[in-house]
Automatic annotation (TrEMBL):
SUPFAM superfamilies for the chain: NAD(P)-binding Rossmann-fold domains (SSF51735), Winged helix' DNA-binding domain (SSF46785)
Region annotated Disordered, chain positions: 220-270
Cross-referenced NCBIfam families: PRK05472.1-3, PRK05472.2-1, PRK05472.2-2, PRK05472.2-3, PRK05472.2-4, PRK05472.2-5
Summary of the function given for this chain in its UniProt record: Modulates transcription in response to changes in cellular NADH/NAD(+) redox state.
Intracellular or extracellular location(s): Cytoplasm
Main localization category: cytoplasm
Superkingdom, taxonomy of origin: Bacteria
Subunit structure: Homodimer.
Keyword DNA-binding: yes
Family statement drawn from the similarity comment of this UniProt entry: Belongs to the transcriptional regulatory Rex family.
Name listed for the protein in its UniProt record: Redox-sensing transcriptional repressor Rex
Domain CoA-binding stretches: 90-191
Source organism per UniProt: Streptomyces smyrnaeus
DNA-binding region: 27-66
């Protein structure tokens, strides 16, 4: 049974890289990968910052934690930075992932090709519905939850994705953790309790929509003549604000909100 919550300082457990920097690494990697695909050899901090949606001074500071300083007048070597950031995020190795709950969302995730291209291999699909057992989804036969522990052990899985109804999520989480899972991506709208050493990231698209609704409401108010307010991320504190949320399915071995559940980078300070 999982008990307690993690409370870690806001630095990565590897080499003391700040969690806010770790949260931006996937944004840099996405921009760099696009440059690499276009065979662009070098990039300036300003160009890369703009492509990643980050301020360039912050980018240079972030890269200094990686020991990457670029060359004056030339910029950063794109391929080398892709390698460095991938290595820092633990993406130079293959990560087997299990998805639990193969309904609408679980099936969509299983069919998402972006996992494999980013180093995450869907090792197994697990569901409690006996009617689903053996049925292929994205070419992988769904396995029953009775097999959960064996599947995780046989495949050496350390990352689990929960896409069950909220009411089942804690119980699924407890079984995953007891079976050896140490990182969980939770799509169920519930706060999970995990023991020390287990990282949880929560994805909730409805929270993102609620934030957009908030801004829409304010824009409507401004059009009606209300004084314009400052948005989060604007003004003097903007430089310390977290980046926009990475893609909903981005996973890192060293999650920015280690051990917490329900904190999206878009809405929580680093
Ligand atoms: N985070 C987001 O942005 C987001 C978006 C959509 C849905 N959701 C959430 O994702 C979850 C799944 O949504 P859905 O539309 O795919 O639901 P769904 O009902 O289509 O699928 C849920 C699946 O979980 C299985 N399941 C139930 N209990 C289980 C257990 N104990 N162990 C293993 N499998 C179990 C069911 O058999 C079913 O196949 C829900 O919690 C939903 O609220 C989140």
């Amino acid at each position: 049974m999982a008990t307690g919550r993690n409370h870690r300082p806001a630095t990565s457990r590897s080499r003391g890289i700040p969690e806010a920097t770790v949260a931006r690494l996937p944004l840099y990697l996405r921009a760099l990968t696009a440059l690499s695909e276009r065979s662009v050899p070098t990039v300036s901090s300003e160009e890369l910052a703009s492509a990643a949606g980050v301020n360039s001074a912050k980018l240079r500071k972030d890269f200094s934690y990686l020991g990457s300083y670029g060359t004056r007048g030339v910029g950063y070597d794109v391929e080398y930075l892709v390698y460095q950031i991938s290595r820092e995020l633990g993406l130079t190795q293959d990560w087997p992932v299990v998805i639990v709950g193969i309904g609408n969302l679980g099936a969509a995730l299983a069919n998402y090709g972006g996992f494999a291209s980013r180093g995450f291999r869907v090792a197994a699909l697990i569901d409690a519905d006996p009617g689903l057992a053996g049925k292929p989804v994205a070419g992988i036969p769904v396995q029953h939850t009775d097999e959960l522990e064996k599947i995780i052990s046989d495949n050496g899985v350390s990352i689990g994705v929960i896409a069950t109804p909220a009411g089942a999520a804690q119980q699924v989480c407890d079984r995953l953790v007891a079976a050896g899972i140490t990182s969980i991506l939770n799509f169920a709208p519930t706060v999970l309790s995990v023991p020390e050493g287990v990282d949880v990231r929560k994805v909730d698209l409805s929270i993102e929509l609620q934030i957009l609704a908030f801004h829409e409401q304010r824009k409507a108010g401004e059009e009606l003549g209300a004084p314009p307010g400052r948005r989060p991320g604007e003004g003097p504190e903007a430089d310390t604000a977290p980046p926009a949320a990475p893609p909903a399915v981005a996973v890192t071995k060293r999650p920015p909100e280690s051990g917490t559940d329900g904190d999206l980078p878009a809405v929580m300070p680093a």
